[in-house]
Amino acid sequence: MNMRVFSIVHLVLALALAPGLLGLVNRVKALAAGRRGRPLLQGYRDLGKLLGRGAVYSRTAGWVFRAGPLVGLAAAAGALLLVPLGGIPALLSFSGDWLLMAYLLGLMRFFTILAAFDTGSSFEGMGASREALFSALAEPALLVGLTALAVRTGAFSLSGIYGRLGPGVFLTASGPVVLLILAVFLVVFLAENARIPVDDPNTHLELTMIHEVMVLDHGGPDLAVIQYAAALKFWILGALLAGLLVPVRSGSGLLELAFGLLGLGVLAVMVGAVESGLARLRLVRVPQLLVGAGVLALLGAILALR
User: Fold this and answer.
1) How many structural domains does the chain have?
2) Between 184 and which of 6, 142, 145, 252 could a Cys-Cys bridge form, CB atoms 3.0 to 4.6 Å apart?
3) Distance CA 265, CA 181 (A)
4) How far apart, in whole angstroms, are the C-alpha atoms of residue 282 and residue 210?
5) Cα 101 to Cα 92: distance, rounded to the nearest angstrom
6) At 297, is the secondary structure helix, strand, or coil?
């Protein structure tokens, strides 16, 4: 079967299963804590309930507040078109597409921050400023890491980069570079998705929240769109990480799809285990963690150039 067909299948599965990955994370956390926990499909039920409710808008908020969720979802969907799943190429692939993917994710964050400021709330402004600071440290690490992989593989599209990472990559001269970038992507993945140890998606303390405090004034369909876009972002960055975590390249589209989904499932279990075993870092320690990831990415780029 043509690989393009599997690229379309990947896109459909991502749109359908992205909220389920977050449900798997919550199930792992519940099992680790000895609780029954929420059903695996609770995320879909929450989205359905939010879509059936009305939205309330403050008199202070303007059009930016209403446009923020829609722009964020559109940017996440656009980035999804550029991301491969293991050896399955992205639906859209061209030289330098990883730069566009990073910019789309940045646009998603930018409008979320603008929407938070548009409310006029001091709490949401506080969360937005923290998000801007941490993203300014995480984005360079992501870009430098992707650059190192591009230089090492000799490909300058995401599909080309990941298509050349075979199962024996860790035993070759590229192994140290891939291992360093794997560690970088793990830190960036946790930071960009507001997961422990950087942020806690389940907290309700305004003084300690980062991402969640920015969407406190959103409700109904707007909040559903934000949560769904966040699930797509989890899938996008997870696919980049899973492609390094499970570098299996069989040449068969069906096997590639199976191993890609397996990698995402393993990643969701790892996130649940990390959140069950680690405490959240103090806010002043988060920049140090992200700067450390940037240093590792720079080291990986230096090794890739040798």
Assistant:
1) 1
2) 145
3) 20
4) 12
5) 11
6) helix
Report, as ranges of residue numbers, the positions in the chain whose pLDDT lies below 50.
Answer: none
| Sequence letter at residue 243 | G
Structure token digits, residue 285: 């320690």
For residue 1 the two structure tokens come to: 């079967």
- Pair of tokens at residue 237: 């960055």
Distance CA 219, CA 211 (A): 15
Check the CA dihedral 66-103-117-131 and report its sign.
positive
Record the tokens describing residue 144, joined without a space: 């430098």
Query: Nearest-CA neighbor of 74 among 43, 111, 46?
Result: 111
Alpha-carbon distance of 248 to 235, in angstroms, equals 18
What tens digit of pLDDT does each residue of 89-123 get?
Answer: 999 999 999 999 999 999 999 999 999 999 888 88
Please identify which residue in the block is written with the tokens 């934000």: 226
Nearest CA-CA partner of 65 in 119, 23, 20, 11: 119
Nearest-angstrom CA–CA distance, 156 and 50:
40
- Answering whether pTM is above 0.85, one says yes
Residue 281, by phi and psi: left (phi above 0), alpha (psi -120 to 50) or beta?
beta
Complete DSSP assignment for 155-188: --SHHHHHHT--TTGGGSTTHHHHHHHHHHHHHH
Rounded Cα gap, residues 286 and 197, in angstroms = 8
The domain of 283 spans 3-305
Q: Which two tokens stand for residue 5?
A: 């067909």
Q: How many CB atoms lie within 10 A of CB 150?
A: 20
What does residue 85 show for φ and ψ, rounded to 5 degrees? -120, 95
Q: Token digits for 93? A: 């692939």
Q: How far apart are CA 158 and CA 5, in angstroms?
A: 18
Q: At what angle do helices 175-192 and 286-305 cross, to 10 degrees?
A: 150
C-alpha to C-alpha distances, 23 to 1, 101, 123, nearest whole angstrom: 32, 25, 28
